[in-house]
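Feature request, filed as a ticket because there's no other form

It would be nice if the structure record came with a short human-readable summary line next to the tokens. Right now we just get the raw output. Example of a typical job, pasted below so the devs can see what we mean:
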Amino acid sequence: MAEPGLDLESVARLIQLAESRGLRELIVEEGEERIIIRRDAGALAGDGGALAAAPSSGAGVPSADAVPTSGVAEPEGVPVVAPMVGVFYTAQAPDQPPFVEPGDRVEIGQTIGLIEAMKVFSEVPSDVAGICTRVAAASGQLVQMGDPLIYVAPDPAIG
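Raw output as currently delivered:
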């Protein structure tokens, strides 16, 4: 049986990268192969918890702990959450206006920010239509999968 495409040295480098950046989770996909490196909750509290790496065959399926636990709107609106770990940016460039500001109308599929992961920028689309009530993540902030980026007060007349 053939070994996965990532050898132990590569996995060790990924674990070291995740530890040095303080990442809660790192997901690497190559073709049909996927590896998830996840820090246990104790490590986040600073008690020396370890990172663990596990291969996964469910490419594109977020882990259960990364999925928002409820679709119920919070008082300030529904969160649009980070789809991955990375650095969140509110604008295309430092000299550009933000994609979304409080009070702006937001459509489903509209880009609300960018996330940079491993030197690749990915657009983050909104999955809810309405009015932005708050931008929860600062530009340049490291976000974890599932962290709220903005809050949107749903508007059934939009989207």
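Something like this underneath would help us a lot:
The CA atoms of residues 117 and 157 lie 35 Å apart.
The helical segments are 8-21, 41-44.
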